[in-house]
């Protein structure tokens, strides 16, 4: 809700984090309840730098992804599918900027290829989830088809 009221808040927070000392980042991670060694200050700083350079639309997509996480109800595959969907919608410029902040130089062609591949993966995962949900939602139908197939096989 706060992000909708102030869309620049995430950008401001990431800019603030990118200017923090390593000790301040360690303290912040500790206060958030994260295990002390789970988040390295360099990684936090690189992530904050990358976020501060992202377009507002891409930041909004990432925020929506975090809000949709679903916690206990979402499977790992569903979470990965949502993440790949968000990544596939990022502009090549944003992907290039994030990769540069993480220490990897990427050409525009590579960034476009990455978003294309991630989009394909997202589509495949979405289809697999739909099939899984169809089968689980209609288990009796799937069982009937399975029994029919076994009967046809046994008949031969």
Could you describe the 3D structure shown?
The structure is a single chain. With 156 residues, the protein is mainly alpha-helical. 76% of the residues lie in helices and 0% in strands. α6 packs antiparallel against α8. The longest helix is centred in the C-terminal third of the chain and has 30 residues.
Outline the fold blueprint.
Elements: H1 2-5, H2 9-18, H3 22-31, H4 41-52, H5 56-67, H6 76-88, H7 92-101, H8 108-137, H9 139-155
Helix pairs in contact: 2-4, 3-4, 4-7, 6-8, 7-8
Question: Quick gist of this model?
Answer:
The chain is an all-alpha fold and 156 residues long. The chain has helices spanning 2-5, 9-18, 22-31, 41-52, 56-67, 76-88, 92-101, 108-137, 139-155. It is built from 9 helices and no strands.
Question: Gyration radius, to the nearest Å?
Answer: 21 Å
Q: H/E element string? A: HHHHHHHHH
Q: What's the total helix number?
A: 9
Portion of residues in helices?
over 70%
Question: What oligomeric state do these chains adopt?
Answer: single chain
Shape: elongated
Q: How does the major sheet shape up?
A: none
Low-pLDDT segments = none
Distance between the termini: 62 Å
Tally of DSSP β-strands: 0
Coarse structural class: mainly alpha
Mean of residue pLDDT values: 79
Strand content: under 5%
